[in-house]
Design a protein that fits this description.
Blueprint (H helix, E strand, L loop, with lengths): L2 E7 L4 E9 L3 E11 L6 E6 L4 E6 L8 H16 L5 E6 L10 E2 L2 H9 L8 H14 L4 E6 L9 H4 L5 H5 L9 H14 L1 H4 L2 E7 L3 E7 L2 E5 L20 H9 L5 H10 L2 H6 L5 H6 L3 H25 L4 E5 H6 L1 H9 L10 H4 L13 E4 L4 H14 L1 H6 L3 H13 L1
Parallel strand pairs: 1-6, 6-8, 9-12, 12-13
Antiparallel strand pairs: 1-2, 2-3, 3-4, 4-5, 7-8, 9-10, 10-11
């Protein structure tokens, strides 16, 4: 069976999934795994679709010192032990800038453009690029596809995307992009099946995890998002502050004399729930803590979700449904209950018993339907990769002779 490998790389981990291609247009999930603790306590874990453990192996730090080494060892395991020879690899890339409004085949020029956007996503973009380069070096004939977290939001109206600064900056790409687009796109694709009564209406989706954002959907299309130019804006997150007065940043630079590098570290690594609680950036740890600061951080997070709901409700002209997704949204009934308190002005009412099981967690009397819907960014990436691989769009997307040859070779295998 031909397969597609999906790669989602972080700062010290590489998550991966393998999908089989059935016929020319269907995907079958086969393997899910990750290599984490890269450079410190490397550990490769993977399971089959039925939950069977396929590998759980630890390595010495020097064996897996960086992401390329992690990608190489993972690829070797897939090829040598399970005979996985993917015809294509799909990657999550956080920032697509103004150039990319859809998934694209990766070639030299595309990779160079992706690298140009590193300052816009310094926490993510280098990690997204590392496995792309590693695979290009190890397996130069494998088709690779970049799927951008910003692409789903690129249809926003200018009134949504613009900042009130001189137009020359907008022309250069300084605009509101929005992120977690692969997650929102997947939820939009699931709504007709899970919640058909609201799928064509006005829905707010809350992607709540270590990185957190919200999106306003109208008939399944993104019309606004909590995040903007970078993934720092909007909701408070595990270690990021969310919305902050730009004057605070000017004050820190001018009066406190901190460097740009120090400011970047503060905003990406030392703020958010971690800063508010002084305990942890992990909601699970905060929920277990008796520390008053931990409780404050949790309530602050819920309050800001409530406030952002008001802004997105105004963008939609009302709300028919509200969806919780991602790590916190899917797995924390107590956080969902905290947030629901700030949605009562919409007529939303949570059912405590239903909240423990989902997917519908609103009461019978609620004027706004509340749902918990698990997201699956990896499946969305696999779908986009297969679409480029199997259709004429793949040939059109090939921007050079080399890429065209790879597309034709991969296409012939389907």
């Amino acid at each position: 069976m031909n397969t597609i490998l999906v790669v989602n790389a972080g700062s010290s981990s590489v998550k991966f999934q393998v999908y089989g291609i059935v016929g020319r247009s269907e995907l079958k999930w086969l393997i899910k795994g990750q290599m984490d603790g890269v450079g410190t306590q490397p550990r490769l874990r993977a399971a089959s679709v039925d939950g069977e453990i396929m590998i759980d192996r630890s390595f010495a730090p020097g064996e897996i010192a960086d992401l390329p080494a992690a990608m190489q060892r993972t690829a070797e395991w897939l090829r040598e032990v399970h005979k996985v020879e993917p015809v294509a690899v799909g990657h999550r890339v956080v920032h697509g800038g103004p150039a990319f409004d859809r998934p694209v085949l990766i070639n030299d020029s595309v990779l160079a453009q992706i690298e140009e956007y590193t300052p816009l996503a310094p926490l993510h973009q280098p990690n997204n690029i590392a496995p792309i380069r590693s695979i290009r070096s190890l397996f130069p004939n494998i088709l690779q596809v970049a799927c951008f977290d910003t692409a789903f939001h690129r249809g926003h109206a200018a009134i949504v995307d613009r900042y009130a600064i001189p137009e020359r900056y907008y022309a250069e790409g300084v605009r509101r992009y929005g992120f977690h687009g692969l997650s929102y796109e997947f939820i939009a694709s699931r709504l007709p099946e899970v919640a058909p009564q609201i799928a064509g209406g006005r829905v707010i989706v809350a992607h709540l995890g270590s990185g957190a954002s919200m999106c306003a959907l109208s008939a399944g299309r993104s019309v606004d998002s909590s995040m903007g130019f970078t993934a720092l804006d909007g909701l408070p997150m595990g270690t990021r502050p969310g919305q902050i007065d730009p004057g605070v940043l000017l004050y820190l630079l001018d009066q406190k004399r901190i460097s740009v590098a120090e400011l970047q570290r503060l905003l990406y690594h030392e703020s958010g729930l971690k800063a508010l609680s002084g305990v942890s950036n992990d909601v699970r740890a905060l929920e277990e803590s008796a520390d008053q600061r931990a409780r404050f951080a949790l309530e602050y997070f819920a309050y800001r979700v409530g406030l952002e709901t008001g802004r997105l409700a105004a963008a939609l002209g009302g709300v028919d449904g509200f969806v919780f997704t991602a790590g916190i949204g899917e797995n924390s009934p107590s956080m969902r209950a905290r947030i629901a308190k700030y949605l009562t002005w919409l007529g939303a009412e949570i059912d405590p018993q239903a909240n423990a099981r989902g997917p519908v967690i609103s009461s019978a009397d609620s004027r706004v339907a509340l749902y918990v819907i698990p997201t699956n960014e990896e499946l969305m990436i696999a779908r986009h990769t297969l679409a480029l691989l199997s259709g004429t769009s793949g040939r059109r997307a090939a921007r050079d002779v080399r890429a065209a040859e790879i597309v034709e070779r991969a296409h012939s295998l389907l």
